[in-house]
């Protein structure tokens, strides 16, 4: 029996205009009202951004933010945190990378970059969350949750080799989108965070459902009882998880469509525990 459902945001629950559709909001409320399902938003987005999204839409959910670096309860309680090692953060921020990609630093106080990227601004039009312009070499490297490079995919693929040589086994590297490459604390991902949360809640991972579209969703989708891949997902994700069902496109609110069918067709067999 599904007791918890986890959702990626960009490319999954959000439409291409970075808004939650009305059908999606109605479906999320049905999950809670009709089945008492625990909602989890598992995203690379910042806590400050996600709190605004929840507030605007009158939603209550657990938040896995920064791709698993933070977990917060619906009441706002910090339940889990991991940061990049201090020495590694220093090296990453002070190194001159051979790339055209922009670099972005995230910590609990916000988002910092020396060069704004219009495409990233568009992603946060819903909440108004925006970066602070800063020379990253002068920032305090303590409690850095993640470092993000944004640019051309082929350029990022080359950069990944440079990054791997520096981070070794101190951190993990993943694509959160085709044009976004992230450096996270070693062992941190959405799947590990969801395992941590479900253990705390006393819910089995096999009683969880999850939706995602990018490589940073891979561990989460692979570890739950029912993982669903978006039709607009990165080709690499579909290749690595060929056994999982592929649903429709986020532009058509495919998550809502799938869950509505699931709720309606399973009505006759559902009985609260």
- The rounded distance between the terminal residues' Cα atoms is 9 Å
Kindly identify the CATH topology of the largest domain: Rossmann fold
Structural class: alpha/beta
**Strand-residue proportion:** 15-25%
CATH class descriptor name of the largest domain? Alpha Beta
Which stretches of 5+ consecutive residues score pLDDT under 50? none
Multimerization state? single chain
**Secondary-structure element pattern, one letter each:** EHHEHEEEHEEHEEHEEHEHEHEH
CATH level-two architecture of the largest domain? 3-Layer(aba) Sandwich
Q: How many strands in all?
A: 14
Number of domain modules: 2
Determine the mean pLDDT: 93
Helical content band: 25-40%
Main sheet record = 8 strands, mixed
Describe, in plain words, how this protein is organized in 3D:
The protein is an alpha/beta fold and 273 residues long. It folds into two domains: 4-81 and 188-269, Rossmann fold; 86-185, Hypothetical Protein, Haloacid Dehalogenase-like Hydrolase, Chain: A, domain 2. It has helices at 9-13, 22-35, 47-57, 86-94, 118-123, 153-167, 190-201, 218-223, 235-240, 254-265, and strands at 4-7, 38-42, 62-65, 70-72, 78-81, 102-107, 110-113, 132-133, 144-150, 171-177, 180-185, 208-212, 226-229, 245-246. The strands form two sheets. It has an eight-stranded mixed β-sheet. The protein starts with a strand and ends in an 8-residue tail after the last helix.
